[in-house]
Amino acid sequence: MISKNKVIFVVGPTASGKSELALHLAKKFNGSIINIDSVQFYEGLNIGSAAPSEEEKKQAPHYLFSYVKAPVEMTAGQYIRDFYELIESGKVNSPIFVVGGTGFYIQALEKGMYDLPEVSEEIKNEILADYEIFGSEKMYAELKNFDAETELHPNDHYRVGRALEVKRAFNLKISEFKNTGADNKNKLPYPSMKIGLTYQTDDKEKFMNRVHQRTLKMLDQGIIEETKSFLTQGYESWAPLSSVGYLETKSYLQEQISREELPAAITQATMKLVKKQKTWFKRDEAILWSDVFTPQYEVIERTVQDFID
RNA sequence: GGCCAAGUAGCUCAGUCGGUAGAGCAGAUGACUGAAAAUCAUCGUGUCGGCGGUUCAAUUCCGUCCUUGGCCA
Q: Shortest CA distance to A110 belongs to which of A180, A36, A174, A15?
């Protein structure tokens, strides 16, 4: 039962045409699409995340899009549970095209996460409060005392905080997980391959133009209204609203930047994201790359066909 | 035309009581195991508006010119 599932990751930076390619392949091979984009999980964040339209979703089965409601915030651990629950429901057609540009989640799905339960809200809040009271130096000192092997930077509040959560909740050292291979049992249990879309360094300008056109389209489609509706509901500090496009729109709505500055600000932030995504994927030698501007659909189809057979 | 500000990194601005200058943002590179489109690390020579003067030494003081704002005519 398990072995009949085959997974094809479709990865790459934002605005590279992943969704379009995945839809093409899903139709061609009578497969399904599962989202692995960290913003497209959320209900109501469609325009700014360039989520597939309703019409596109009708053309092939789409899963794990728009299914998390504010103010819930997604985690990689929760995503993996949702993913396997979905597969085990038996309704997903193979081949499964897992589409998105969030390297962290892709890694989590492929390699698995450390096998830890959720940390309670009490402990999470306690750590946030302690940060306020004691400051980052003392918080880092607490970690370093407990786990001398930690390679975290003292300024990386988020990761230091997480390491302290694991310490206080379970008395465990994250640095130890790295060496013990504790993640192996959570690895993706299906055969998989990865195809990616990206652009050559020389084409950065060209890609930026493409991104800018997309920014203008988002503004046209109503990213401002989309953002405003979350603000009026009081979700100002909801983490996904700090993602690219929404953060800049929020700045505009809060009168920190002008309407004239908004398009360039979104494009600039998007390019920064693109760079980080490229950096993330660069070290993954298993990805079979294709060029954004000249995607060889026939070649990709043949590669997928070979993999499925 | 007169008076008053301001002119320093791609941008916004600090600063030098005279010893050739540094933050944030942007940019480049990288890290990444339950917020990840987040978070974090490393990287800073620029005629200090132009030209003169004073001085051992001027981006800093003085003069003058140019540019941009504001006020007054």
A: A36
Which residue shows structure tokens 């020389």?
Answer: A202
pLDDT computed for residue A116 by the predictor = 86
Tell me the two tokens of residue A111. 């390699």
The answer on pLDDT for A2 being more than 50 is no
The whole-number Å distance from A25's CA to B18's C1' is 72
Tell me which residues from 268 to 287 on chain A have a beta carbon below 7 angstroms from nucleic acid strand B: 268-269, 271-273, 275-277, 279-280, 282-283
Instruction: Return the axis-axis angle of helices A262-282 and A204-221, rounded to nearest 10°.
Output: 130
Cα(A254)–Cα(A231) distance, integer angstroms: 10
Q: Does strand B come within 7 Å of the CB of A185?
A: no
pLDDT digits (tens, 9 = 90+) for A120-169: 999 999 999 999 899 889 999 999 999 999 999 999 999 999 999 999 99
Residue whose C-alpha is closest to residue A263's, from A245, A247, A280, A250: A245
